[in-house]
Automatic annotation (TrEMBL):
Signal peptide as annotated in the record: none
Name of protein: protein acetyllysine N-acetyltransferase
Residue ranges occupied by any Deacetylase sirtuin-type domain in the UniProt entry: 1-86
UniProt-listed InterPro entries: DHS-like_NAD/FAD-binding_dom, NAD-dep_sirtuin_deacylases, Sirtuin, Ssirtuin_cat_dom
Gene: cobB_1
EC number(s) on file: 2.3.1.286
Coiled-coil segments on the chain, per record: none
Keyword Membrane among UniProt keywords: no
Keyword Hydrolase included in the entry's annotation: yes
Taxonomic path: Bacteria, Pseudomonadati, Pseudomonadota, Alphaproteobacteria, Hyphomicrobiales
UniProt cross-references to PANTHER family, sorted A to Z: NAD-DEPENDENT PROTEIN DEACYLASE SIRTUIN-5, MITOCHONDRIAL-RELATED
C-alpha cells in the first residue's frame, strides 16, 4: 500500500490537526508509551498480538520482548493472516 499521498485532515472546529492516537508508519513511538509498554510486559502473564504482521520495528520490538532473558517465561501468541518473521 502506498500512503505517500495520505493527508491528515484539519479539525474544522479548532483548526488543529485531526489525528488519531496511533503511530503512523515512519513515526517514532513516544518514549513514555515505550516505557509504559515495557512496564506492562513485566507484569503480564502472557502477550497476544492481533492484527499485526510485525514487519515494522515499533511494534516488533514489543513482541520480541518475551524472547529477552528478563521475559523468558512470558507466553506469546501472534494471530495474523500475513506472513510474519517473528
Amino acid at each position: 500500500m502506498d500512503f505517500s499521498r495520505f493527508a491528515v485532515p484539519d479539525c474544522r472546529s479548532y483548526g488543529g490537526i485531526l489525528k488519531p492516537d496511533v503511530v503512523f508508519f515512519g513515526e517514532s513511538v513516544p518514549r513514555d508509551h515505550v516505557t509504559r509498554v515495557i512496564e506492562s510486559l513485566k507484569q503480564a502473564d502472557a502477550m497476544l498480538v492481533v492484527g499485526s504482521s510485525l514487519m515494522v520495528y515499533s511494534g516488533f520490538r514489543f513482541a520480541r520482548r518475551p524472547l529477552n532473558s528478563a521475559f523468558r517465561s512470558l507466553p506469546s501468541i501472534s494471530a495474523e493472516h500475513a506472513l510474519t518473521t517473528c
